[in-house]
Amino acid sequence: MTALDLSSPVAVVGTGTMGQGIAQVALVAGHPVRLYDAVDGRAREAADSIGARLDRLVEKDRLTGAERDAARARLTSAESLDALADCVLVVEAVVERLDVKQELFRALEDVVGDDCLLATNTSSLSVTAVGGALRVPGRFVGLHFFNPAPLLPLVEVVSGFATDPASATRAYETARAWGKTPVTCADTPGFVVNRVARPFYAEALAVHELRAADPATIDAVLRESGGFRMGAFELTDLIGQDVNESVTHSVWQAFFQDVRFTPSLAQRRLVESGRLGRKSGQGWYDYRDGAERPGPHTAPPAEAPAYVVVEGDLGPAAELVGLIREAGVEVRAGDGYG
Ligand SMILES: NC(=O)c1ccc[n+]([C@@H]2O[C@H](COP(=O)([O-])OP(=O)(O)OC[C@H]3O[C@@H](n4cnc5c(N)ncnc54)[C@H](O)[C@@H]3O)[C@@H](O)[C@H]2O)c1
C-alpha cells in the first residue's frame, strides 16, 4: 500500500488554524489542494494567508520562488462541497463538535467517490463516533496533526472501530510522504499525546491547588529540572485555558470519569472568569502591556557547611561525594561508610 499520488487533489474542510496548516503541508508536498469553509469568504482568506506563509518560506530560503509560485497555483478555494468531487483525500478540521462533523461527513459522502479517503483532525472526539454514520466507514480514519502543523512532525493515524487497515496504512504512508512522522494508534480517548499530557497538566494543577508552590515556581521546575520546553501553566496559557479544559473534560468523560483525569476546579474558575490565557490577555500569567512576569520562588544561597558526614551505602548518590569534595567541602566517613 503506497501513499496517495501527489498529482491527485486533496481537500481540507474547515480553514481555521489547523486547516490552514494541514493544507500548507499537503500543498508543499506537491498535491493540488482545495479549501472549503462553511463561512463565506473564509476559504479565500485562508488561501491568501497560506500564500503569505509560502512567501515567508521563500524569504527564509526554505522554498524557491518557482516552488512557491507552483504551490500557489495548485491551491484553490471552493465555493461548495461539490467542487471536492474528484479529491482522493478530504481532511476535516472544523469545529470540535460531534454533530457538526458527522453531518459534514454524511454530506461529503454524497459528493466524493467511494475510494476517497476521509479523515478527521479531531483532538478529543471518538473517531469511531465521527465516522459512525458513514455508508462506507472503512475509508474513514483519524489524521491528528499538532499545532503548528507545518512545523510539528508528529501525526497520529487513528483507526476507528470500522476503519479498514488498508485505509489506515494509506493515511500513514501519505503522512510520511508529506515529511511527517506518523504513528498509528487505536481510537482511545485522547489517543496517545493528549492522554499522556493530561497527568502533566493535572499534577501541576494539583501541586498548585495544594498550595505547595505557585505557577511560576512549578513551571521553572518543569523547565529547568524536568527538561520540558514549557511548564504546564505557561503551556495551557498558550493553548487557551478553555481549549485545554475541554480536552481534559472530554477525556475524563470518555474514561467514565476516571479520577486520574478529573478536571481542575482552579482551572474551571480561571475559565469562568474569562482568563483564557494569552488570547484574552490574562491566564495564569498576565500578558497585558507593562505586566511583569513573576519569577520562581527560590531558596537564598546558603553558607556551605564545614564538613559533610556520609553514612552507609550511598548507591547511586555516591557520585555526590565527588561533587561535594570538588566544591571544597570536607567529606568525613561515618560508621559503616565505604
Ligand atoms: N487548535 C489546535 O491546537 C488543534 C490541534 C489539533 C487538532 N485540533 C482540532 O482541529 C479541528 C479544528 O480546530 P481549529 O483550532 O483549527 O479550529 P478553528 O476554529 O480555528 O477553525 C475551524 C474552522 O471550521 C469552520 N467550520 C465550522 N463548521 C464547519 C462546517 N460544517 N463546514 C465547513 N467549515 C466549518 C469554521 O468556519 C472555522 O473556519 C478541531 O477538531 C480541533 O479539535 C486543533
Description:
The chain is of the alpha/beta class and 338 residues long. It folds into three domains: 10-186, Rossmann fold (3-Layer(aba) Sandwich), CATH 3.40.50.720; 193-280, N-(1-d-carboxylethyl)-l-norvaline Dehydrogenase, domain 2, CATH 1.10.1040.50; 302-338, no CATH class. It is 40% helix and 13% strand. It contains twelve helices and ten strands. It has helices spanning 17-29, 42-59, 65-74, 98-109, 127-130, 165-177, 193-209, 215-224, 232-239, 241-254, 265-272, 319-326; strands spanning 10-13, 33-36, 75-77, 89-92, 117-120, 140-145, 154-159, 181-186, 307-310, 330-333. The strands form two sheets. An eight-stranded mixed beta sheet has the order 3-2-1-4-5-6-7-8. It has a two-stranded parallel ribbon with strand order 9-10. The longest helix is centred in the first third of the chain and has 18 residues, at 42-59. The protein starts with 9 loop residues before the first strand and ends in a 5-residue tail after the last strand. The mean pLDDT is 95. The structure holds nicotinamide-adenine-dinucleotide (NAD). The site of nicotinamide-adenine-dinucleotide (NAD) has 22 residues, from helix 1 and helix 4.
Summarize, please:
With 338 residues, the protein is of the alpha/beta class. The protein has helices spanning 17-29, 42-59, 65-74, 98-109, 127-130, 165-177, 193-209, 215-224, 232-239, 241-254, 265-272, 319-326; strands spanning 10-13, 33-36, 75-77, 89-92, 117-120, 140-145, 154-159, 181-186, 307-310, 330-333. It folds into three domains: 10-186, 3-Layer(aba) Sandwich (Rossmann fold), CATH 3.40.50; 193-280, N-(1-d-carboxylethyl)-l-norvaline Dehydrogenase, domain 2; 302-338, no CATH class.
